[in-house]
Amino acid sequence: MQLSRDSSAGLLIRSCTPGELVIGAERYRHSVLIMPDGELRPWSPPDIVRLQAADLQPAVASAPQVLLIGTGNIQRFPAQRLLAQILRQGIGVEVMDTAAACRTY
Predict the structure, then answer these.
(1) How many domains does the chain have?
(2) Measured between alpha carbons, how far is 31 from 45 in angstroms, rounded to an integer?
(3) How does pLDDT run along the chain (105 residues), one tens digit per residue?
(4) What CATH number should be reported for the domain holding residue 51?
(5) Which helix (H) or strand (E) covers residue 34, if one does?
(6) Do 76 and 44 touch, CB atoms closer than 8 A?
(7) Spatial separation of the C-alpha atoms in residues 72 and 59, rounded to whole Å
(8) Among candidates 91, 94, 97, 84, which has minimal Cα distance to 18?
(9) Cα–Cα distance measured from residue 8 to residue 31, given in angstroms and rounded to the nearest whole number
(10) Which residues does 87 contact at the CB level (< 8 Å), separation at least 6?
(11) Cβ–Cβ under 8 Å, residues 34 and 40
């Protein structure tokens, strides 16, 4: 997969601090899904080690090229079987701490 900078006028993550994201002009103190079309959805995932396919279904259903998962202050990984399941659907997966995920987005 080739990565390239997206210069479109999409969402801008302005700030990422422990417990808060600032996306555009809005502050979020809860987890969010940022969909490929720019829609923001509230998200209440379980702890990353208990994450299941159903928890990611809204994001996976939109068939993104890459699923970028921020895991909070430290990088932690979901179960390998979950990652493999997503990869089998032709979706790349990147898991990193939330600050790194924000910079990558």
Answers:
(1) 1
(2) 8
(3) 566 665 555 789 999 999 999 999 999 999 999 998 889 999 999 999 999 999 999 999 999 999 999 999 999 999 999 999 999 999 999 999 999 999 999
(4) 3.40.1230.10
(5) strand 32-34
(6) no
(7) 18
(8) 97
(9) 24
(10) 93
(11) yes
